[in-house]
Amino acid sequence: MNKTRISIALVATGLLAIAPSALADGSVWLPAPGTGTMTVSYVSQSADNMWVGKNGPNPIPFRGLDQSTISIHGTYGFSDAVSLDVSVGRSEVSPKHGRPIPLSTDGLTDTEVGVTWRFLDEVVTGGPSAAVRFGAILAGNYDVGGNGPAEVMGDVNRVGAGPTAIGDGAGGIELSGIIGKVINNRLALSAELGVRNRSGDVPRETFMNFDAHLIARDNLVLSAQYHIQASSGDIDIGPPPGPGAHGMHWDQFPFVAEDIKRISLGATLALNTVDIGVHWFNVLDGRNTAEFKAFGGTLTYNFGQ
Fold this sequence. Notes:
Blueprint: H1 3-16, E1 36-51, E2 60-77, E3 82-95, E4 105-108, E5 111-120, H2 122-125, E6 129-138, H3 149-152, E7 172-183, E8 187-198, E9 205-217, E10 220-231, E11 259-271, E12 274-287, E13 289-290, E14 293-303
Antiparallel strand pairs: 1-2, 1-13, 1-14, 2-3, 3-4, 3-5, 5-6, 6-7, 7-8, 8-9, 9-10, 10-11, 11-12, 12-14
C-alpha cells in the first residue's frame, strides 16, 4: 500500500472519532475492496440551555437534559468505488434535575443503512475525490410524544417522551454529495451537502459537513468538523400551536423546525488492527435545539486488511 493510500485509511478512521450520533456522515475515503471496520462508540451529552424560535433572547435556560448513547457503526468495501455503511445504537434521555415530568426514556436509536459510490478517485486522477451517498433510515423503538407509556400504566395525567424523545420516530431517506482531498499526505479536507426526508409531517432537513483532518503522526489523526442543519418546518417550541406550553401538544415535538450549528473535535490513534478515538462536540447555535456539550470515545476494529 502506497503512502497516499495509508493516509486515506487513517483519515477514514478519523472521521469516526467526531460523529456524535448514530446517523452516519458520508465520506469519499472508502474501505478497500473486501475490507471494512466495526466501531463501537459511546457519547455522553448534557444541556442546561436551549434555543427556541427564530427570534428573542436565546439561548434560554430550561430544566436540562442528560443523554447517553452507545452505538455500533460498520463499513464494508465492495469495490474500489462502492461501500456499505450501517449504524444503530441505544440511547437514554432524562431530565437533569430529577423531575418526573418529562419522563426519562430509552430505546433503540434510528437505524441507518447507506451506500456510497465514489465516481472520482484522487489516487487515480490527482484531483479531488467525489462521491454520492444514499441512505435509508429506519425509526427506532423509542417513545416520541403524547402520553406514551403513561397510558399503558393507566395514568393518563402523566406525560411521556416529548422533550426527552430520542428521535423523530419516523423513517426516511437521505441523499448527499461529498468532495474531498488529501494534501501532501498530511492534511485532508472534505465537504458534504445533503438532504434528509422523513415520513409524515417531520420537516425536511438540509445538512452540510465541513471536515479537516491532520495526520500529526504516522498513526495519529486530529480531526475537526463544522456541521450545519437547516429545517424546512415552521413550528416552534412554545405556546400553541407549538408544543411545550404547560406540557401540551407534546406529540408535536417531531414536527418542530430544528436548526443546528455544531463544532466537533476528535483524535484517533491507530494500533495495528484497532483504532482508539476520542471526541468532543458543542452546539453553538440553533432553533428548537438544546445547547448540548458532549464527550465520547470510539473503539474500531479493522478487518480484512
